[in-house]
Amino acid sequence: xxxxxxxxxxxxxxxxxxxxxxxxxxxxxxxxxxxxxxxxxxxxxxxxxxxxxxxxxxxxxxxxxxxxxxxxxxxxxxxxxxxxxxxxxxxxxxxxxxxxxxxxxxxxxxxxxxxxxxxxxxxxxxxxxxxxxxxxxxxxxxxxxxxxxxxxxxxxxxxxxxxxxxxxxxxxxxxxxxxxxxxxxxxxxxxxxxxxxxxxxxxxxxxxxxxxxxxxxxxxxxxxxxxxxxxxxxxxxxxxxxxxxxxxxxxxxxxxxxxxxxxxxxxxxxxxxxxxxxxxxxxxxxxxxxxxxxxxxxxxxxxxxxxxxxxxxxxxxxxxxxxxxxxxxxxxxxxxxxxxxxxxxxxxxxxxxxxxxxxxxxxxxxxxxxxxxxxxxxxxxxxxxxxxxxxxxxxxxxxxxxxxxxxxxxxxxxxxxxxxxxxxxxxxxxxxxxxxxxxxxxxxxxxxxxxxxxxxxxxxxxxxxxxxxxxxxxxxxxxxxxxxxxxxxxxxxxxxxxxxxxxxxxxxxxxxxxxxxxxxxxxxxxxxxxxxxxxxxxxxxxxxxxxxxxxxxxxxxxxxxxxxxxxxxxxxxxxxxxxxxxxxxxxxxxxxxxxxxxxxxxxxxxxxxxxxxxxxxxxxxxxxxxxxxxxxxxxxxxxxxxxxxxxxxxx
Length: 651
Ligand code: PRX
What we know:
Layout: H1 20-25, H2 31-38, H3 40-48, E1 59-62, E2 70-73, E3 76-77, H4 79-92, E4 96-101, E5 107-111, H5 112-128, E6 136-139, H6 145-157, E7 160-163, H7 170-180, E8 184-188, E9 190-193, E10 196-199, H8 201-208, E11 216-220, E12 233-235, H9 236-239, E13 252-253, E14 257-262, E15 272-276, H10 278-291, E16 301-303, H11 310-322, E17 327-330, H12 341-349, E18 353-356, H13 358-367, E19 382-385, H14 392-402, E20 409-411, E21 446-449, E22 461-466, E23 476-477, H15 481-489, E24 496-504, E25 510-515, E26 520-522, E27 525-527, H16 529-537, E28 542-552, E29 556-565, H17 573-587, E30 595-598, H18 612-619, H19 635-645
Helix pairs in contact: 2-3, 4-5, 4-6, 4-11, 5-6, 7-8, 10-11, 13-14, 16-17
The structure holds adenosine-5'-monophosphate-propyl ester.
Residues 263, 310-311, 386-389, 411-416, 437, 498-500, 512, 515, 607 line the site of adenosine-5'-monophosphate-propyl ester.
């Protein structure tokens, strides 16, 4: 029996060092690690000085009230000024901030000068409605430029935005508006999704019936579809377009709240994760510049996340704008109107940095590599991944098919709570291993520990913890200080526990193993679902896999796998038998699935995370639980069908 908290089963020998050309031009060099190691707080001071502060801070970090941190105390700055005004003042007003591409193919380029005018007008509009610094504003919009403008307008006047993903229901919206006691909702008639207008306003109409704090609803016209209208509603174009084009921005304290973002938990009341101003902007700017190697004068950067998720906050809006990036913003889905839409956009805009999620990559693998092959993607030079562990096979596919074997891949680990990237390679420094997030960034301190909080050491598996505070850390859960302490800081004294399992390989590289709630216990061995999933996806017929532990009389839990086959592969018993042997061969007989079900789809949350709870229900033959946070609730019926036609193999 091993003493590891989680078994370390798989092994990876491949490593890809950056090319000499890439390393020579990279923003970040190995010196960054040394600099941070010598004096961590001086290092963060230096990063913060990249921003424009109206008043400098006197104390870099006050951790005396841990786990409540104060960063850059005494400092004052305005986030919108840092993201927009200062670039215009420096002569970059004509540079495009966003190339916007709507799903129907409508386009709009917004320069930094234009963005300044839009944000100033919107800030004036919010003030005309009586919105003040500290007030909460709910934003419920699709991926359109007004989403970024609305966020920046709030930041400009010190109002706290709470962006709620446009796919959430009226009830999810109501509970979030209510929790934050928002005074204003910014929404639109609808967005375009899969070739059709998708209405947003009806959910707002329903939600605000029960949220008395909301005084006004500001409505952007996007699709032109019919909307119900009440006296609470104001058209964005009526109010905002009539405003003065300049707005005098005031600086706010470094710890002034910037936004609340509710984490889409699959169980329990959502947590309103609170982020503040100076530390957050410092770390998103630093990570965006160094992890993606952003060159503001030449790169075209595309982060495919929706602004409803933290990735959309930190790496569609704040990080890129603070670094004066030219970004692509796309409204729709990757399959509208055809499966090559993303690659068509890469070709059209000459995208050079692409940041997306493993779930998207595996979907493209399933669709087949002939689709991206039709487009010229030679402009790409850096690829990023975020949101869940990326299996080595998906990593290799991303590198070869999308990156033409030449682009460094940065697998970035972080969370809504951490605000910015924490663990990632540096693209010009790190020799990356397929599937590993490699190591903590300079300035960040992470460890993998066992049940007693002892470091597991190289070759061991356990729990990922952060051992020192970081500038963009959450400052609490909105209105629930005790829950903040209890959720993140109570398992081991002085350590932030992220909820993720991880292992260190023999070289000390970090491999994320998924949420520890998902770890299976097979005959006393704690096995991560991620490792078994990766082993399955490494078989050429498998596009995607989800693994759960189901109750088992003999072994405690048994491994049940759900797999999606690649396009054109016919399911059958021989495939199931093959896959079981393949897993045993890749990571050991202990990890051989008890049962493998071939399914057409997997249940996922809107942010692309697999809902293992529902799969466990199927695996244990329970009634299927609540599916309201599923991206597509009909999938459970599809999987049910898969179950009866393909019972898998048991022995
Ligand atoms: O389990 C980890 C996984 O996503 C969780 C955070 O989810 P969320 O707050 O929605 O933020 C997602 C975008 C930052 C983490 O606790 N996760 C995120 N990135 C990775 C990851 N797991 C493995 N590798 C990653 N690169």
